[in-house]
Structure formats: C-alpha cells, structure tokens
Batch of 2 targets.
Target 1
Amino acid sequence: MKPKNIKTDTQLIHAGVFKNSFNAQNSPIYRTSTFIFENADQGAQRFLGKEDGYIYSRLGNPTNRELEIKLAWLEKSEDCAVTSSGMGAIAACMWTFLKAGDHLLADTSLYGCTFALFTHCLTRFGIQVDLVDFANIDNVKKAIKPNTKIVYFETPTNPTLKVSDIKAVAAVSHNANKDIKVIVDNTFATPLLQRPIELGANLSVHSMTKYINGHGDIIAGCVCGTAKDIGEIKMVGIKDATGSVLSADDAYMINRGLRTLSIRLQKHISNTRKIIDYLQKSPYIKTVYYPGLDTTAGHEAASKQMDDFGAVLAFETSLTFEQTKTFVNSVKVITLAVSLGSTESLIEHPASMTHSTYTPEDLKNAGISPTLIRLSVGIEDPEDLINDLDQALKFAVK
C-alpha cells in the first residue's frame, strides 16, 4: 500500500492498493466465494478472529477491502464497510445498533426509501421513530429521549437541499448521551466536499451508486466509522441481518470510478453554477434551492462544513402541477430518471417519483411542494443543458 501522507487526489488513485503476486498495474478481481486454509488449525484461528485472513466473501474479500481502505482514508475514519446498496448500508447500521424499545430520531427530510425503512419497517419491530426538522437544533435537543440510540440525518437533504449543522447535532446528541450513534448520509457531498466524522458524527453512509462510482452502472453503498463500530456492522448488520454483500466485480468498478471523482466533481460543480444563474433569471422558476445560495436553509452551516456545495439542486417552478410534469417530460438532452451523481444530467419530480411513498402531510413536513424539481447536473456542455431546460419550460407553458 502507498504512504498515508499523500493528498486527496493522489489517494483517489493509490490509496489501499495491495501488491499482487504478478505485479499487475491494476489489482485483480477476486471472484471467489470461499478461501482455502493451509490446514484445519488455520481455519479455526481465523473463525476465532485470532488470525487475519479471508474465509468466505460474505465476511470479506481482498477486492472489497482495497475499496474499504480507500474510502476510510477519504472520510478520515478508522475503517469502512462496503455493501450492495446504499439502503443496505443504512439498514445494516439500524439492525446493528437498534433493538425493540430503542428510539431513532431522524430529520423530516429523507430519501424516500430511508423514510419507508424508518417509518414502515423499523416500527413493526418495536423501535420508536420520531422525525423532526434538524434545521432548528432546539428540535433535536427536545426530541432526544433516554432510550435514543441513533440520531440520523442527511445533509444536504434529498430532495430539498436543506443543510443541517453536523457539529451542532453531534454535540447536542453526545451531550445528552455519549453512546448515541450520530449517523450522517453524506451521499450528496462525497468525502471530497464534506467529512462528517471530522465534525463529530460517529458514522458516515453513502450510496456509492452516485458520485463515488459516478457512471450510473453500479448499485452499492458504504459506511465509515471507528474500527469497533465497523466491525460490529460487518459481523451483525451485514453478515447476519441483511446479507448486503458487495460483489468483487462491483468493488473493482467503483475503485476505477473513484479515480476520476475529483475531476468529475469540478466539472459537475462548474456546470451547476451556470445552470443556477440561468434558473434565477427565468420567469418560469419561483425558487432555487442550493447550499451555495444564502436563500437556502442551512447556507451558513454549509459554508462552514463543506469545501464546496455540490452538483445537485432543486427548484420550484411557477407553473401548475400538470405543467411541471409536462416540463420534466419534455427534456431532450437531460434524462428523466431517479438517482444522481452520474455523468449524465438527471431530472426528477420528487412528489410523483422518489417520494411517492409520502402522504400529503409528510410531503409538506419535508418541504416538498407539488412543483418541486430535483436536478443532478452532469458533465455535459452547460450550454446544451441550459438550452434544454429553456425549451422544455417554454413548451410546458404553451
């Protein structure tokens, strides 16, 4: 492996790389379900945890381990566990650290499937769940209970781009109970723009499907934290509770995608700034939400905890609900699809797509209006993207 005192752009290329037996430039993919023991005693020692080494790929794989080491370095954490999806990472954390009678406190603005996991699934197993607006730190302080075990939030949030103060939430939570696990979904920011563990969070989760892989061809997730917490998540949340194991082939592809994360983000963000400038001048747009704008909730916190503001934005049209749907149906260069962080620009209508599981009251509490649009800005030519938005808006109002 390469030295640890190297800068981020170099880490993206070299961190975690193992020397292989044939000195190949690229690490091999270990496509194997099981690993051979030299003898029965070695197998026993490995199962007892008294000897390092691989046993079975559900418990660990060298290709996956290379990716975990790289991600831990980027997040400035002790260790990392990779999973077969972002929801797999979140679910593994929940099933590791929660039991019947425990309390989970989360923000009102959540990814639709995270919301469903918390409110529709965990509650069936006797876990108490409360959702409050984390933009006001007093809400967090008042909602923590003696049995609170996890405090969970996204920042920036999906899809309203609201930002919560990680340091403040972590401080309030740990002052109430030092054993509370503060978990931050860091997908929108990536470790290059924000590192929650440095700000006091216990765990940072990602959907690696998004920017970390960056090409829209892999489903994966990860969670970073202390070696102790990650060890528990691997042995309980992944091995036993979810079986959410990332394939070696997918780990290899993500390792390859990570190499260009820095230069991709630069282009993503540059395009985003130009599109925001266009949208703010358009007569068809009522409000633009983006952490870099002082009109967006949490801008002050974002300025303190983010190195830059990312490449996802949301905006409310001044059109009717039906016209707004016509608008997203009329884009030609931009792709109408869920997800984000891909090289392609992706547009979606949260109320009818990613957050369709929400009731009208839930949508209102999360700040998701019927005319809210989320746009993940890709790395195409910005002029083409702006022209596409413009023609689709004009077509919608005809």
Target 2
Amino acid sequence: MPVLDEFSLNNQLVVVCISNTIETAYLAKYLAFAGAELYVLAQTEELLDEATQILGEQVNGKVIDLQNKSSIVSARDQIIEMKGQVHGLVIDSRGTLAKPMADVTQQEWDLVMNYNVKATFFLYQAFGECMQDSGYGRIVNITSQLGDRAVDNLSVFSASQAAVHSLTKSMTVEYSKYSIRINTIATGWTSTEEIDLEVQRKELLVRFIPLRRKGVPADLGPLLVFLCSESCDYTTGQPIFINGGLTSRP
C-alpha cells in the first residue's frame, strides 16, 4: 500500500490491544505498511499466536488481562522501558453477546461490559498518562455502529458500544491539550477475507447494506493509518462510521 509522507508512521510505536477478535490484527497490518513498529497486548495466548502469524514473527507482544488495571499499567511500563515513547494505541472493544434482553444474566452483562468498557477505560487511563507526559499521542478504538443504533437481541453489546463512544468524547475533552487525538472507527458488518459478491448477496443481511457487501480490512486500514498519524491533528472525539452506508437506513 503506497503511503503519503504526511501519513507515514516511521519511527512510531503503536500498541495494539486484542481482547476478542483477530480482525484487529488484519487492520494493524496497515499500520505496519505505513512504517509503524507494533506491540501487541492480547487477552489470550491463542489470540497472540494468531496475531503473530498475521503480522509476522518480528512483532513483539505479550498476554495480559486487559480487564485488570494493574496488568495494563505493568505492561505499559515494560513497553516504555523497552521501547521508549508510545505514540499510538489501538483498542478493539467489540466483545459481543447476542441474546434477548429478558434472558441476559448478570454474569453476561458483567462479561460484556468488562471486555468492552472497563478494559477501554483503563487502557485510556494508563496510556493517556504516558502520552500526556510525552506531549503526544494517537488513540483509535474499533467499535460497532451499534453504539448509535439498535437491533434485536444486542441490547448489552449496543450499550457497551455507546459507552465507549461516550468515553472517547470525555477523554477528548480532558486530554486534547496534551496533543492527544482520540477517535473511534465504528464498523458495520465485516469480514477478514474477500467473499465473492454473488455469494454475499444471497444473505439477507448483505441486501440491507446500501453498498451490498460486507466491509473488509482494506476499507478500514487506510483510515486507521490516518487516525494514527501526525496529520490527524484536527480530528478528535469522533465516531467515524465505516459501514457501507448502513447509517443511512432508518
């Protein structure tokens, strides 16, 4: 992928947090294309192994509990000790639960909120602190369009996404003066691989998307590069919807 000089991430360290879906690693490939050095924090050994396969053996990373503040702070301090300044942070906050509202248990509510909201808050807090000290930072959260919409059986997930969008705005208000820019890429229905259009369009779900296909990493990756770059200086506090036009639907 050709990268304009103003969007180059050469000599920049971006920490990528993967707690649920390996799709984030496919998006992080675009950061590597732009020259970024990546460090992966993964919730499980399996996710870290998959991310390493996708991003290459040269990528550093470790397994931590992304819902535990002390684990996050410890990992942050180790990264800074090894690598120096952290320039960017990418968080995937899309742990899902599909269940009618009346059937959701307290344990399931806690699980979704811990994965999506609690982890995001303490990652913002921990890495916001070191970015504040250095006077520079770019944070991008990968969320769902359901932070702004509602569909059957996804009430808890939608609430968690709306909470992350709200946290993004709050952090923007508190941290913009330190040259930290924080935004959200709110996705629609996506796939990590190209699927033949004729096959896709047999799905009722795809027929509802104005562009009549699911999103792929190539649709999101270039925007992620911009949001992690120094050129992203006047864009902050925004949920940017990349969903094939779904938010145009009533």
